[in-house]
Specification:
By secondary structure, the protein is mainly alpha-helical. The protein contains 6 helices and no strands. It is elongated and about 50 Å long. It starts with a helix and ends in a 6-residue tail after the last helix. Bound molecules: zinc ion (ZN).
């Protein structure tokens, strides 16, 4: 089960690469195991996210989609502004930074439905 903070770290690894995974391993006082042997090019491109998932959960997930779907279902997509999870796909604004809050009264739909282009 992924916590919100872990979801944030996965997104950080996806954006910043292996340096984010190495920094988290140092923070946890752990050393990284030999890299996963990834067959698919998509998985290799998303290696930092898979290695972060492995560091946090101990599970050798080789399918990036499994991680994306799992975290978005549980916590919503990352906020377009601060990149923290929206917590639910039904969020009307980002609870962490307030993104989307100003437009809420004129359009009360969930942020993902109000501005779908931001989440592609
Ligand atoms: Zn935000």
């Amino acid at each position: 089960m992924l916590e919100g903070e872990e979801n944030y770290l996965l997104d950080k690894a996806r954006q910043e690469g292996m340096s984010a995974v190495e920094a988290e391993a140092r923070r946890l006082g752990r050393s990284l195991p030999p890299p996963l042997d990834l067959a698919s090019p998509v998985a290799r491109r998303l290696r930092p996210m898979l290695e972060m998932y492995r560091l946090l959960t101990g599970f050798d997930e080789e399918n990036p989609n499994a991680i994306f779907h799992h975290s978005v279902e549980l916590y919503g997509p990352p906020c377009p502004k601060c990149h923290k999870p929206l917590r639910t796909v039904k969020a009307k604004f980002c609870a962490a930074c307030g993104f989307g809050q100003a437009a809420m009264t004129s359009d009360p739909q969930p942020l993902v439905e109000r501005k779908p282009a931001l989440f592609e």
